[in-house]
Amino acid sequence: EVQLQASGGGLVHTGGSLTLSCVVSGVTFDDHSIGWFRQAPGKEREGLACITPRDGSTFHAESVVGRFTISSDSAKNTVYLRMNSLKPEDTAIYYCAAVFGSYYSGSGYKVRPPSEYNYWGQGTLVTVSS
Fold it and tell me: Each residue of 72-120: pLDDT tens digit?
C-alpha cells in the first residue's frame, strides 16, 4: 500500500518558519518525484515545489522562490519543505504527492500539474497569523 504521511504543520506568526515532512512508503522512493502542493479555502490546488530524489533536481514555483526550499533524504524516504518568511496568505492545507519518474511531463518543458500525480498524502494545516 502506497502511503505519503505529511506532518509539521501548525500555527506560526508572520515572518516565522516551519519545516514540513513527507514520509513515503510502498513505492521505490528514488523512482519517483515528490511534490508539495497547497490548497487554501476557495482556491485551486497550487504546486509549490518538487524534487527527484534520485538526482536531487528540484523545481520551485515563482511564488515561493527564495522563501521555500524542498529537499529529500533517501535513507529516510522523506521529503522536506522548509518554509521561511511565512505570510498570512501562506495559510492553507499542504499536501505532498508522488509521481513515477520525472516531475516534468510530456516533452519535458512543463512541470507536471497536480492531476498527474498518482499518490497523495492526507495534508497538514499551516496557519500563519498576522
Answer: 999 999 999 999 999 999 999 999 999 999 998 877 678 999 999 999 9
Supply the pLDDT for residue 68: 98
Write the Ramachandran bin of 53: left for phi over 0, alpha for psi from -120 to 50, otherwise beta: alpha
The residue behind cell 500525480 is 117
- Cα gap 50→57, rounded to integer Å: 8
Rounded CA-CA distance 107/104 in Å is 8
Task: Read off φ and ψ for residue 91, nearest 5 degrees.
Answer: -60, 125
Count the Cβ atoms, other than its own, within 10 Å of residue 82: 15
Grouping H, G, I as helix, E, B as strand and the rest as coil, residue 30 is: helix
Burial 98-115 (b: 16+ CB within 10 A, else e): bbeebbbeeeeeebbebe
- In whole angstroms, give the CA distance from residue 130 to residue 59: 28
Q: Tell which residue, 15, 23, 24, 50, has the closest CA to residue 35.
A: 50
